[in-house]
Structure formats: structure tokens, C-alpha cells
Amino acid sequence: MSVLFLDTFAGISGDMFLGMLIDLGVPLEVITAGLEKLPVTGYRLRQERTERQHIGACKIVVEHAEQHHHRTWRQIDAMLADCPLNPAVIGLARRIFRRIGEAEAKIHDRPLEEVHFHEVGAVDSIVDIVGAAIGLHHLSPARVICAPLPLTRGTVDCAHGSFPLPAPATLEILRGLPTVGDAATVELVTPTGAAIAAEIARFGDLPAMTLDRVGYGSGDRQLSDRPNLLRGLLGVADDPWEGETDRVATLECHLDDANPEWLGALMERLLKAGALDVGFAPLQMKKNRPGVRLTVVAEPHSAAMLARHILRESTAGGVRCLESRRFKLRRDIRSVNTPLGEVLVKLFYDGQCLVRLSPEFESCRDLADRSGRSLPEIYRLAERSAEDLFPVKG
């Protein structure tokens, strides 16, 4: 299984990512041929060799006359939806722009459809994002893993004025994802770079793999304490499992004298306290007593706390705990627009392959209540609306 690891010791931006892909072997002609299918003109894309602290790298330059073209998210999404590029490429580019648009909508407290892109709506950013989608599709790693992204302090100048670092859009995009503090006072992670990483990768350490190629994409600055580069490591993973893994703790006990009302309340308490799953199963126990097996799946660091809940709020005198490896599909939750309103869908990925999507129950139930339509109808609308944006491959 091929794996691309993003070594983000100096952060990530759109042009750094694109330069890294080309340095890994994606022909520039593949990128430019795909970009020519966009209704965007007046620019020229070229690559040049450069050095950052004596390390050779690929620098991508977008030459254009346009300075700040303010396009809306709706305009860019419609432009991409009508583009005759590969559907997988278009789907990825649309998801990256949507992720940025959702962050801007949250920051500026306005609907997604009203979001105006400034820097991200300019030609160079469109080229970076769509070019990244084209290049990644050509490279086709089965899995992309990204190191935690470095967040810095200071300020950055943009169309809205001077903003604190990390940029508000970057922080919103990276909510829920691993980051590390960095002593630098310049922007290392741009919103575009954050959105690309968040959309294509899971975050973690360098996996065990046989290394094949290393590529370097250069940023614009010369940093004083490190080379301003994004490093990509492409290789073959030793683990045949292509999905994600983690560690979970399974808590279990048998109860033959529990009040069913207490058990219902205990399930709610355990889930609220952070349990990943809680289940009851019937048992036939000693002395011919009917009983219940309580099983709780949790993150290992929560096991002791949840065991204490079980011991204090049930009739259990002891709780067994087993820590094990869990194989799982990567999950993402995204919003889609239906004719009746917005709903959330859960996306399940095997590596980079979307194998299943499922409307989110609570979101669909809320829309059914608001619209007066049936829940099955809302589910069907959500599934149809998600098909174009998130094509299932498995």
C-alpha cells in the first residue's frame, strides 16, 4: 500500500504542497493540462529549482496580472461543478474550497452562500487548490498522513487588515485536528494549506514503510531557524491494513441484580462522559438468574473514569478492562444542501477511498421536524444531495 507522509516541520501552504508533488514526480504538464480546462485565464504556471538552507526544492510560481479578485464560494463551486475534469479531482477541489468557505462563514457569522473569498478567490489560490487535486490524483497514494501542524504567534496582513496568527480561518479549519505550538513569528500554515491537509490526510507520526521517494516544495520566505520547505515522503507501508487503527479499552461486567431503570440512566451517563459505545446483552447466569452483560468501548485514557461510573452507579462489584487494537474507517462529518435545508452526512473512508456515506440521524430528524416531511424522505434527499459532492468509490 502506497503512503504519502507530509513532514510539516516548516508548515504547509498551497504552493508548497504543489511544489512537493512535482518534486515527487508529478509532471508539470499534467497539472497545466488539467488547469487549462478551468474557465480561468491570464496566468502562467512555471516551476523553478531553488534552495532553502542548501536543500534543493521545487518552487511553483503563478504569474498573473490579477491582484485581488473577490469571488464568492458559490461562484467557485459552480465553476468547478461545470468543469470537465476527472470527477474525483473536481470533488476534492470542491471539498477543499467548501472547507475554507465553511470556516470563513463561521468567522464572519454569515451563510456559506454569502462568503466572499479574497486571497483564496484569486487566480494563484485557485491554481494551487485545483492543481493540488490534479497532482494528488496523478500520484494516487492509498493513504496520506500528515504530521501535526505548527501554529505560530504574531500577525499577518490580508484583505481584511492585520490579523493575529494563527489566522482565524486556519484555526477554524484545524478545529479537532492535532497541532503543535511553534516559536516562529511568521505564518507557517496558511488557510489553503490547512484545508488541503485537513481534507486529504489523517494526522499522526511517520508510519513504518519502505521509502521510495522524497520531495521538497518551497515556500516564499527564507526562515532563519529552518529551511522553509514542505517535505513529502512517498513509500510502501509494511502494514497490509489500509484503513486507520487506534487503541481502545473495552470495559465489561455481568449484572444479575440490576434495576433496568438504573441501567438506562447509566448508559446515558457513560455516553455523556465520553464512552465511544455502550451496549447491553442478555445472559443466563449462575443460580439460573437472567442477567445483563454491560460492554463499554472507550479511549484508553478514559477507562478508569468510566469504570468508576459503572462501579458507583450499578450493582457491579468489579469491572474487567481489556486494551486492544481497533481497525476502523476514517470518518468525516460534512454538511450538504438539500431542497429543504442543510443536513449533515457521515463519510467513511478506506484510505483515500470514500466507501460509504450515511445521513446523520439527529440532523435529519431536526430537518424533518422543521419541514413537516417524513424522516425517510429527508434521508433520501440527503443521500442524493451528497452524491455529486462525495462520489462513493468502494
TrEMBL record:
Gene3D superfamilies assigned: Transcriptional regulatory protein pf0864 domain like
Top-level taxon: Bacteria
Lyase recorded as keyword: yes
Keywords carried by this UniProt record: Lyase, Nickel
Molecular function GO terms recorded: lyase activity; nickel cation binding
Family statement: Belongs to the LarC family.
Full protein name: Putative nickel insertion protein
Organism per entry: Syntrophotalea acetylenica
